[in-house]
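[09:14] KT: can someone run the structure on this one? pasting the chain below
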Amino acid sequence: LFQEMTRLETTPGSVEQKIADLYKMGLDSARLNAEGAAPLASDLALIDGLTDRAQLPGLLASIHMALANPFFGIGVMADLMDSRVNTLYVAQSGISMGDRDYYVDPSNAAIKEAYKAYLVRIFTLAGYDEAAAAQAAADALEVEDSLAEVFFSNVEQRDLPAQYNPMTREEFARRYDALDWDAYFESMGLAQADRMIVQQVRVMDRVNELLKTLPLEKIRHYLAAQVINEGAATLSDDFQTASFEFYGRTMSGQQEQKPRWKRA
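[09:31] RB: done, structure tokens below
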């Protein structure tokens, strides 16, 4: 269907035109390889400009809106106790291997080491020198380790009542006081949100602690890792190969990447 659309004369601004353009962008390996990490430059510059915790609400909102979900995830879905109402949910997020067991289970030590090497690789591709890439990867993994320690396990995530913790905006802001939530919600277009459901209270407790105590350099490295990793599968061949070698081969046992037209 996509291939057929690339041959159609589409109406500017139509869904068909947008799909065809996006698909062609995915096929254009020459441009992707020429650009390298350039498409991430403005986002990484924003992160690099983090010099004061007061900047965190706006910075996190910009990343959450477009790129990744560091520290926590936020979104709207039907209220589990009243399906007539849509409610804001705040949930655990921000560990790039997905399952906490990859971080805390000693039997996964080899995978975790491969993940660290992958982080070094993508930081290097993003323009960090060897020493800076190693430090950034170590810092990012340290933050993910801390989050993974308190993440709900797969078994715990089956317990839906334990993940239904409604709070008013005031209660939420009082408990999680590391961020200016008014500024964050304003940046997210959620200024009117007056109630939210926190799915994993203990995880948000840890997030609040980390946002207060982590050195800003470690926060910058963690956020940069989240952004680069999220973009890796759609950047140049070097990034895509690095992403596949870890997520496809090491974690999933795939032997080869799908051809570019399928990935696109």
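[09:33] KT: thanks! The beta strands are 72-79, 82-92, 165-168, 195-198.
[09:34] RB: yep, looked fine to me
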